[in-house]
Specification:
With 335 residues, the chain is α/β, with parallel strands linked by helices. The chain has two domains: 171 residues, Rossmann fold (3-Layer(aba) Sandwich); 140 residues, Rossmann fold (3-Layer(aba) Sandwich). It is 47% helix and 16% strand. The protein has 13 helices and eleven strands. Strands 8-7-9-6-5-10 form a six-stranded mixed β-sheet, with helices on both faces. The chain has a five-stranded parallel β-sheet with strand order 3-2-1-4-11, with helices on both faces. Strand 7, helix 9 and strand 8 form a beta-alpha-beta unit. Helix 1 packs across helix 13 and helix 8 packs across helix 9. The longest helix is centred in the middle third of the chain and has 19 residues. The relative contact order is 0.16.
């Protein structure tokens, strides 16, 4: 059973209500039909019910069973407007502006549904920029209690791969933190190790990546990662976290033994922490495209409720996978 099939089995065992705000995108309809067929979640699509039904018919997909919510006619819209004003009045939010936002910005409307307890998760981003999803999520939902920050990860399931956890890796941060300092890198390592445990159910081995292994190069960029490792080891002693190390030293046993002898992680890493968003984003897309890996994410960690972004290059199947991941996140948060 593949990784995503395992996640879907977990999602089916305790179905959650997930919002798909992007009713203007064909892939949303195709994904919704797949989710319903697989039984991994109950769904809400935001928009005019007649237009949604017509679009589904045009695309030839069956989305019977999806609940539609139209902000223009929803009986809860006024309470959402009032709540948004309350949450953002210190930033100049007015009733007029809140009304305009919620009637026209469907991802933000979906996040308000989540905030008000009318849904368990939101999946969006197929046709919106990451910032358009993350900004309202951070403004409205805030960070989870005790979370040091909000970061993101991708799950990569690489076929016929001898490395990682039977080909499964978590890559972070590939979508949110552009150039984290040492403290943030350490927090990303700890958060992603915890996420690996929750989603994969195995022991995380966290490699903090660099162009250097154990001081083989001297540069401020190396120092940043080296310092992050020291912070992470002190802050998250329950996890195997090591570095700085090059990618081959992190995942290939023979290279790890040669370049980082005695490391508890080298050659066995299944969680890869990249030094900045450029490296992370390029890295996950290389693996996705060249190694034909399934890539799911970006999945947000550290936020108070499950909101997950999508790559605008995603396929409908990717959306269905992230819906299942979001449902499992909601299960974990409900415990």
């Amino acid at each position: 059973m593949s990784f995503i099939d395992q996640i879907k089995a977990k999602a089916k065992a305790d179905k959650k209500l997930i919002v798909l705000p992007e009713s203007e995108d064909d892939r949303t309809y195709q994904a919704a039909a797949q989710v319903l067929k697989e039984g991994t979640a109950n769904l809400i699509m935001i928009g005019n019910a007649d237009k949604i039904a017509a679009k589904a018919k045009e695309l030839g997909v069956n989305i019977d069973g999806v609940k539609t919510v139209d902000p223009a006619t929803c009986d809860k819209t006024e309470s959402y407007i009032a709540k948004l004003v309350e949450l953002r009045k210190h930033k100049g939010m007015t009733e007029e502006k809140a009304r305009e936002t919620l009637l026209n910005d469907y991802p933000t409307f979906g996040i308000m549904m989540l905030k008000m307890g009318d849904a368990d998760g939101v999946v969006s981003g197929a046709c919106h920029a990451t910032a358009d999803i993350l900004r309202p999520a951070l403004q409205i939902l805030k960070t989870a209690p005790g979370a040091p920050m909000v970061s993101s990860f991708f799950i990569l399931d690489v076929p016929n791969c001898e490395y990682g956890e039977n080909g499964i890796f978590l890559f972070a941060d590939c979508a949110l933190e552009q150039d984290p300092d040492s403290e943030k890198l350490a927090n990303i390592a700890g958060q992603t190790a915890e996420s690996f445990e929750k989603f994969v159910g195995a022991k995380p081995n966290v490699a903090m990546l660099s162009h250097s292994t154990y001081g083989s190069a001297k540069h401020a960029l190396v120092d940043k990662v080296h310092n992050a490792v020291a912070i992470a080891k002190e802050k998250y002693p329950q996890y195997n976290i090591d570095g700085e190390m090059q990618l081959d030293a992190a995942i290939v046993p023979s290279v790890g033994e040669s370049k980082a002898p005695g490391s508890p992680v080298a050659g066995h890493a299944n969680v890869l922490i990249f030094p900045n968003i450029d490296a992370g984003n390029i890295g996950y897309k290389l693996v996705q495209r060249l190694a034909k890996a399934d890539a799911f994410g970006p999945v947000l960690q550290g936020i108070a409720a499950p909101v997950n972004d999508l790559s605008r290059g995603c396929f409908a199947e990717d959306i269905a996978g992230v819906v299942a991941l979001t449902a499992v996140q909601a299960q974990v948060l409900a415990k």
